[in-house]
UniProtKB/TrEMBL annotation:
It is found in: Membrane. The keyword Transmembrane helix applies. Residues 5-170 form the Glycosyltransferase 2-like domain. This is Glycosyltransferase family 2 protein. Its main location: membrane. It comes from Sphingomonas telluris.
Amino acid sequence: MTELSIVVPCFNEEACLPELHRRLSAAALSAGSSDYELVLVNDGSRDSTWQVMRGLADMDPHVVAVNLSRNHGHQLALTAGLDLCGGETILIIDADLQDPPELLPAMLAAMHDQDADVVYGVRRSRAGETAFKRATAHGFYRLLSRATEIDIPVDTGDFRLMSRRALNALLAMPEQSRFIRGMVAWIGFRQVPFPYDRDQRFAGETKYPLRKMMRFAFDALTGFSSAPLKLASHAGLALSFGSLLILAYIAYAFLAGRSIQGWTSLMLVVVLLGAVQMFVLALMGEYIGRLYNEAKRRPLYIVQEVAGGEARTGVRPL
Ligand code: UDP
Ligand code: MG
């Protein structure tokens, strides 16, 4: 069995790959590991990421390059790499070098010293990211930790070190809408934080436009909490109570002979109720859509080809 696996999901990262390969190899060596593998997963990139990756695999026997059949999304690409890797200890890292590979020896030491199964990076600062991204991320992690029953650490990405048994527990979870940092928190074992400063992207731009960020946030919320549904029922309850008050007023107005005017208030109530109902329906729709998705039980991803890692026998997509 390999000692250390480093798993990297890549989407349009051609400009980052050579530098990534250089710094990851150096980090693995400086951590005292010569028995390591770099599992690079190409998530249906539209640039030459796959060609660059395959070139690295041809040149360096430590590199395993995995080509997915299309863009499956960050969390599924990561799952593909985790499924395929064979290491005793596993490092998850982004391709853009925002998370410094040089921290690997210190993270390994933390894992060893504190007898932990998971060492997760906590972002002390985030360089080179827009104020909007920082603010939404800040709000999101705090909202999430209030809404969920399990303790999902705040300001924590997927940059983390895991033991084989923690990874096996993670891989036993079959869900389609994957929020991996939450799922790792769910499995338990001893998990310790590792504060670090997040760098700028080495090259290229973020692969998380607003649309993907929203979807990611909803996957996290719906996957780990039914608080939004409760919110909906609380809103319903409050409104029902409100309508009782209005009803009382209507009765009073009728008895006092003042029941003709009131078009404005009538419209107000109709519009407000309509809006709230739509909102609640949409919220339920988010859950139902995900239920439907899970019910189909499709494979999480499709592997097109694997290059390198000669020892690795057979691809085992879920
Ligand atoms: N990524 C991916 N598939 C996608 C989007 C992103 O594999 O559909 C990868 C991307 O290449 C990077 C990681 O996920 O390695 C995180 O993306 P990014 O750095 O763009 O996100 P940000 O740091 O801006 O939140
Ligand atoms: Mg990034």
